């Protein structure tokens, strides 16, 4: 397992005009996120699955060595966002275990069989996470109606929604993202996600007014965030 030496990293430069969260699938990505000045990390595993709960040891190593907020993905398996009772119990156990290990927040999203936000199960997890903030991840874009889903997320107690406006990418979903920001009325943060890169972030911000962004900062191949791309994202 890679070991980080905090003092060897240069002081990151923060961009105060927006918040940047980097999805990190390994420890090297986490180091790059910190070194590049990102505001926080979404720590997960399973890039090809779209993000899964990371190994506890990975979290502990990153948390111990990097002074940056770490939100942890809670997702027990690949596939859809409808979970069996056993899978849901695993989500509760993982969340409570990682909370005890001093996670700064959590990222998850549960749908029901009708394509709506599963308010009952999500509320349970949000309550278990309290007082730590929770983000409803991009399962949001698979709901039947994003505006109804927005209200459901607020009712459940989520602080953030990760979304591309129901489109394949945030660039393609700018119209819906702008509408969601208006509908949110500052009751919840709308985080633009989906192919957010240094050559698209300024356009998305200009078109939507959104100031929260999520990117993996990964190139065409591999699963490690590019330090250079994170720096470019922070300097846009």
What can you tell me about this protein's structure?
The protein has 236 residues and is α/β, with parallel strands linked by helices. It has a single domain (17-234), classed as TIM Barrel, CATH 3.20.20. The chain has 8 helices and 8 strands; from the N terminus they run E-H-E-H-E-H-E-H-E-H-E-H-E-H-E-H. The chain has helices at residues 27-35, 56-65, 85-100, 119-129, 146-156, 174-184, 201-208, 227-234, and strands spanning 19-24, 40-43, 69-73, 105-108, 134-136, 160-163, 189-193, 212-215. The chain has an 8-stranded parallel β-barrel, surrounded by 5 helices. Helix 4 (119-129) links the parallel strand 4 and strand 5. It starts with 18 loop residues before the first strand and ends with a helix. The relative contact order is 0.15.
Counting helices, strands and paired strands, the structural category is alpha/beta
Mean pLDDT: 93
**Main β-sheet, spatial strand arrangement:** 1-2-3-4-5-6-7-8
Q: Count up the helices.
A: 8
What is the name of the CATH class? Answer: Alpha Beta
Give the termini separation: 33 Å
Shape: globular
CATH superfamily name?
Copper homeostasis (CutC) domain
Low-confidence stretches: 1-13
Fold-level CATH name: TIM Barrel
Q: How is the secondary structure organized here?
A:
Layout: E1 19-24, H1 27-35, E2 40-43, H2 56-65, E3 69-73, H3 85-100, E4 105-108, H4 119-129, E5 134-136, H5 146-156, E6 160-163, H6 174-184, E7 189-193, H7 201-208, E8 212-215, H8 227-234
Parallel strand pairs: 1-2, 1-8, 2-3, 3-4, 4-5, 5-6, 6-7, 7-8
Helix pairs in contact: 3-4, 4-5
